[in-house]
Design brief:
single chain; mainly beta; five-stranded antiparallel sheet; five-stranded mixed sheet; 22 strands; 46% strand; globular
Length: 328
């Protein structure tokens, strides 16, 4: 009897983690004007004063009745609006005022790898924006391609399948993508080439421009963690969001700071863990990362991926980068 109960609990845990689609079901598309609500999120026992080097500012639980809402794998912020990209080619943009969602808009990436709407066709895992123009770049993990979209996501302008990414594992490829202030782009693979390191590429310019050749390097995340997103700190260093899943159902995440100066051809780059997010503070799948400046303060934003499971929450967290770190 004990074995049967254990087996059933294990099956239930897997069903909670695995998305509702298996690669063949047609994905829903987000409405133009979805209804999105926010409620305060406070972890059990309240927020601690510090999470590693960071100070919690607050958190929200985002929800919507739209079946295409959720599954967010990337986050960007521009002009006071959050851009939340799902791993199914759907985007939600919204403003937050006093913990209230304002002017939510839905966008669908109708142009992308292949022509269908299953997971393999629209496995959009990473997003970065040009803060001046609003132009967007999206990384497609299964196909290891990068697509550039016009402001507003109305149409694709160009795309590329970089030769340096062709041997990256399907569905374990371009998990993160960040446009740096000097116009360079950086991307990490979720897995490979081995258990300890992950592929990394640094493009000196737009990766969708024909002939763009990146610098290849390796990123060494904390043991058994995988990179899920990255963002640039004010001093030019990188903050990498890494996460770990432990069976049957436990997520933890680590924020790792790496030096831009250490990214050189064929280098193995590691960094210092700035914070660890684990239960009870956060036990969900942290996938999206963004950094903003507010009145001289550096804010770190994280969004979670509920794997398109309506019973699992979507959290948006805001943390303050410490002044001592900002002054380094």
């Amino acid at each position: 009897m004990r074995r049967s109960t254990s087996f059933l609990l294990s099956v239930a845990a897997v069903l909670l983690v695995v998305p509702r689609y298996d690669g063949s079901e047609r994905l829903p598309t987000i409405r133009d004007r979805p209804t999105v609500t926010a409620s305060p999120y406070v972890p059990a026992g309240g927020w601690p004063d510090r999470i590693g080097a960071l100070a919690p500012v607050g958190g929200l639980t985002l929800s919507s009745s739209d079946p295409a809402f959720g599954g967010f794998s990337a986050l960007a912020l521009r002009d006071g609006r959050a851009h939340l990209l799902s791993d199914g080619g759907n985007l939600v943009t919204l403003a937050l005022r006093g913990g209230t969602v304002r002017e939510p808009r839905g966008h669908v990436l109708r142009q992308g790898p292949r022509v269908g709407w299953d997971r393999r066709d629209r496995d959009s895992e990473s997003l970065t924006l040009d803060p001046r123009t609003g132009r967007a770049w999206v990384g497609y993990e299964t196909h290891n391609q990068i697509w550039r979209y016009a402001p507003g996501y109305g149409h694709a302008e160009r795309h590329s399948a970089p030769a340096a990414m062709r041997r990256w594992e399907p569905n374990l490829g371009a998990e993160s993508l960040v446009r740096l202030r000097d116009g360079a782009f950086l991307t990490f693979a979720e897995r490979k080439p081995n258990r300890r390191t992950r592929h990394g590429l640094l493009f000196t310019g737009d990766p969708t421009v024909p002939g763009a050749k990146p610098i290849r390097f390796l990123f060494q995340p904390p043991d058994r963690y995988d990179p899920s997103d990255a963002a640039e700190l004010p001093d030019g260093d990188l903050l990498v969001l890494t996460r770990r899943f432990q069976y049957p159902f436990r997520f933890t995440a680590k924020l790792v700071r790496i030096s831009r100066a250490h990214i050189r051809p064929n280098a193995v780059v590691s960094g210092k863990t700035a914070a660890t997010l684990a239960p009870p503070v956060l036990g969900e799948n942290a996938e999206g990362l963004a950094i903003t400046q507010e009145r001289g303060e550096t804010m770190v934003w994280i969004v979670t991926d509920n794997d398109a499971m309506a019973l699992r929450p979507t959290y948006l967290l805001k943390l303050r980068w410490p002044r001592s770190e900002r002054e380094k």
